[in-house]
Specification:
- The chain folds into two domains: 50 residues, Zinc/RING finger domain, C3HC4 (zinc finger) (Herpes Virus-1, 2-Layer Sandwich), CATH 3.30.40; 114 residues, Zinc finger FYVE domain-containing protein 21, C-terminal (PH-domain like, Roll).
- Helix content is 27%, strand content 36%.
- Strands 8-7-6-5-11-10-9 form a seven-stranded antiparallel beta sheet.
- Strand 7 and strand 8 form a beta hairpin.
- The longest helix has 23 residues.
- The radius of gyration is 20 Å and the shape is elongated.
- It starts with a strand and ends with a helix.
- It comes from Urocolius indicus.
- This is ZFY21 protein.
């Protein structure tokens, strides 16, 4: 008797009641109430919701880092944040840079405090590789959290953690 088919409101595929029983909010697709989704789409939707509710806000608020261009020995104190339209990484200090998110090829998080068991590490910075507009050559930029700004340390750590999550799920960063 129970042969009713339901379609996932995210991917559109048909599933039996058991396989499409998760009801998850989908506000980005203009659904007001939670809707039926298959297990795979429900997991993606939950991760997206976490990203939009947590990481995106942290990235847009920004944090302060010492920024080093390429192989230079000089670093500059800059506020790094995601632009309001979420297309650029904006760096403001004595200099001003805007790096188009789509041009970022790698994000490497720098840590300290490595233990043999792999625990107790903390993010202290990151290295970005990106292409400048009109160039195929990769450029590098290093971000280091300043130890002497203890009030900024937690903010910088949160910002680096958000960048790490974004870089692990690379598609999310590029789909904004």
């Amino acid at each position: 008797f129970s042969s009713a088919q339901h379609h996932c409101r995210r991917c559109g595929k048909c599933f039996c009641d058991k396989c499409c029983s998760k009801k998850v909010p989908l506000p980005r697709m203009c659904f007001v109430d939670p809707v039926r989704q298959c297990a795979e789409c429900a997991l993606v939707s939950q991760k997206e919701t976490e990203f939009y509710d947590k990481q995106l806000k942290v990235l847009m608020n920004g944090a302060t880092f010492f920024v080093t261009l390429g192989t230079s020995d000089k670093s500059e104190l800059m506020v790094c944040r995601l632009s309001n339209n979420q297309r650029y990484l904006v760096l403001d200090g004595d200099s001003h840079y805007e790096i188009e998110i789509i041009q970022i090829s790698t994000v490497q998080i720098l840590t300290e405090g490595f233990t043999p068991g792999g625990g107790n590490t903390r993010a202290i910075g990151m290295v970005l590789q990106y292409k400048a507009p009109g160039s195929e050559e990769l450029r590098q930029m290093k971000f280091t959290a300043g130890e002497e700004f203890s009030s900024n340390k937690k903010l910088s750590a949160s910002w680096l953690a958000a960048m790490h999550k974004v870089s692990q799920g690379g598609r999310t960063l590029r789909r904004l």
